[in-house]
Amino acid sequence: MHSPPHPRLLALLPLLLLAGCDEDKDRDLRRIDITRRIGRLAPLPTQARGVQVYERSNAFAASFWLRFEAPAGSIEAFLAASPGLAGVAAQRMCSQEQTAAAEAHSRRPHPPLPGAVSLSVSTGDSCEWHNIQLPSKLPWFDVGQVRTGRLYVIPQDSDANGGTLVVDDEHHTLYVAVSHS
């Protein structure tokens, strides 16, 4: 038989749980800050909701994935204020019809690598594919479901920091995948 938990331990339980939440919040804020620095991105809009961030790193490289929702105007202000996107032209996502036509004409050089999602972006009269590496642990980073949106490739800087940013114009969601190697 188990003895009941000590009453003092029960009294401390809410504090221990809150301390863990603060620790998680601090870790996520640090990850958001690093994601912004690697991508040379503006601060997240104050209206950002549903913010999620993930990190995978080792001694030689680090990758970060960030997702948030915000009103369209806030997303546009965020993009305009981000130094890493200065001079970067957005590539429009291909429609489902354009993507199907491109696949039918075998313009796709190869399937996406395992652990990657392939996005179809417009090159004017055709589509090309851009792969984004994804850990399998990120069901919330559903960038492959974007149908009406834009892709920005954040060029690598002299410290090998760069990445990809996708705007889902239909759902007002922004996806960021950055890395440092």
How would you characterize the overall build of this protein?
The chain has 181 residues and is α+β, with helices and mostly antiparallel strands. The protein has one domain (7-180). 28% of the residues lie in helices and 30% in strands. It is built from three helices and eight strands, in the order αββαβαβββββ. The strands form two sheets. Strands 1-2-8-7-6-3 form a six-stranded antiparallel β-sheet, with helices on one face. Strand 7 (161-168) and strand 8 (173-180) form a beta hairpin. The relative contact order is 0.18. Mean pLDDT is 80; it is low at 15-19.
Topology:
Elements: H1 7-39, E1 49-57, E2 62-69, H2 72-80, E3 91-92, H3 96-104, E4 116-122, E5 127-133, E6 149-154, E7 161-168, E8 173-180
Question: Structurally, how many domains make up the residues?
Answer: 1
Q: Tally the beta strands.
A: 8
Helical element count? Answer: 3
What portion of the residues fall into strands of 2 or more residues?
25-35%
